[in-house]
Amino acid sequence: MKICVIYDTKRKNGATVHIVKWIQEALTDAKAEVDLRSWDKVDDFDYDLFIVGSPIYWERPLKSVLNFLSENRAKLADKKVVIFIVCMANLFGHFTDEYIDKRYLKPLEENISDSVVEKAVFRGWLKKPNHNERRKVIKWARELIEMELRSNGQRR
User: Fold this and answer.
1) Which of 21, 73, 118, 156 could form a disulfide bond with 111, CB atoms 3.0-4.6 angstroms apart?
2) pTM for this structure?
3) What's the topology of domain 2-151?
4) 14-58 tens-digit pLDDT
């Protein structure tokens, strides 16, 4: 399975960078071929799955990621797309679920809603990587690959 993980970030060693590397690690361990790409370095759309992520700054996903999805909606129309965000709003528990969906995930889905097969919210941090979140990301990525293999009638 060939997977492209597309993202942007404002912090070159921040939570989003760690999370995409953890996703890559888990998917590679599951024998997937995984490419990490900044939103502005994507020139090939010959993948089985796209995973697109953005941190949340000033209560919104990064404009670069939103623009990428909008500008490439035709190329992504017949593809499977997974979206994820990295934020700290989920620190407040399930009370923020509706807010996160409406304010953070919906804008990412807007132009590609028919292609989205999965969504995820990961908790960011300010200083040191959160190793509990690492376990969550790896578990999620493994479940994602299993789901994709099942939907394609394959087994690992």
Assistant:
1) 73
2) 0.92
3) Rossmann fold (3.40.50)
4) 999 999 999 999 999 999 999 999 999 999 999 999 999 999 999
B/e letters for 101-115, b = 16+ CB within 10 Å, e = fewer, are eebbbebbbebbeeb
Are the beta carbons of 118 and 84 closer than 8 angstroms? Answer: no
Place of tokens 């090939």: 44
Q: What is the pLDDT of residues 64-106, one digit of tens each?
A: 999 999 999 999 999 999 999 999 886 666 678 888 899 999 9
Domain coordinates in residue numbering, the chain: 2-151
Q: What are the two backbone dihedrals, phi and then psi, of residue 136, each rounded to the nearest 5 degrees?
A: -65, -45
